[in-house]
Amino acid sequence: MCSFTFLVLIFFQCQVRCQWSDIDNLKSMKFSSTHGPKIVLLDNDTVARRYEGGCYSVCFSDQPLPVGETLHFNITEIEMGWLANLNVGIIYKSPDSFLPGSLVLCDANVSASLPDTKVFIFERFYSSDNVYSFRVDEAGIAYLSPNVTNDDVIFTEFDVNRTFWVIFNIFGDSKAVKLLGLS
Predict the structure, then answer these.
(1) Mean pLDDT, all residues of the chain
(2) What is this structure's pTM?
(3) Which backbone phi and psi does 25 adopt, to 5 degrees?
(4) Are β-strands 117-121 and 87-91 bridged in parallel, bridged antiparallel, or unpaired?
(5) Is residue 3 included in any domain, yes or no?
(6) How far apart (Å, rounded) are the C-alpha atoms in residues 35 and 95?
(7) Is the pLDDT of residue 168 over 80?
(8) Contact at 8 Å (CB) between 144 and 154?
(9) Is residue 70 part of a domain?
(10) CATH number at residue 61
């Protein structure tokens, strides 16, 4: 039994290492320069960090998410003690269409304030050690993995005929998100 457990652990470690061995080959995705007033962009606009408080921290991808492509990201900083969590999802509105100063939002679910938005709120298996993968398939089903729901489906009925961007609300416990790229 001991040797079997050891082999399973070796296999799992190889799977994780092999899965992300070509992370340098991902297509670029950055954060838009349009974001909430408490966000600062770092690392060539691939990191969005909330620098104060728990609100005013909405940010977007700098380009639409192509249907079927996967955005990989990591929650790089967590600040325990808040009663809310990161939102991730889509918005059918270009970040460039927001007026300066209009993203002063303090909702645990950003969909409550922004029309044409659908988000998932992290509640379990929330970890800065995970690389998360978010995609919308041709059938309009959104997936987020690993370990956020039993089947990785976070919502359905996306209109894939409309252009959409990825939206993050770096709210509550989450302090910073790094976009790793698209595959």
Answers:
(1) 83
(2) 0.84
(3) -95, 5
(4) antiparallel
(5) no
(6) 8
(7) yes
(8) yes
(9) yes
(10) 2.60.120.920
- What's the domain count of the chain? 1
Most confident of 8-12, 33-37, 128-132: 33-37
Q: What is the pLDDT of residue 154?
A: 85
- What domain range is 86 assigned to? 25-182
**3-state DSSP call for residue 94?**
coil
pLDDT in tens, 53-96: 878 999 999 999 999 999 999 999 888 776 668 899 999 999 99
Whether 8 maps to a domain, the answer reads no
Give the single-character DSSP code of 110. Answer: G
The whole-angstrom distance between residue 71's C-alpha and the CA centroid of its chain comes to 8
Strand order of the β-sheet with 142-145 is 39-42, 47-50, 174-182, 70-78, 131-136, 142-145, 153-155
117-121 sheet: strands from edge to edge:
31-35, 58-61, 165-169, 87-91, 117-121
Residue 165 belongs to some domain of the structure: yes
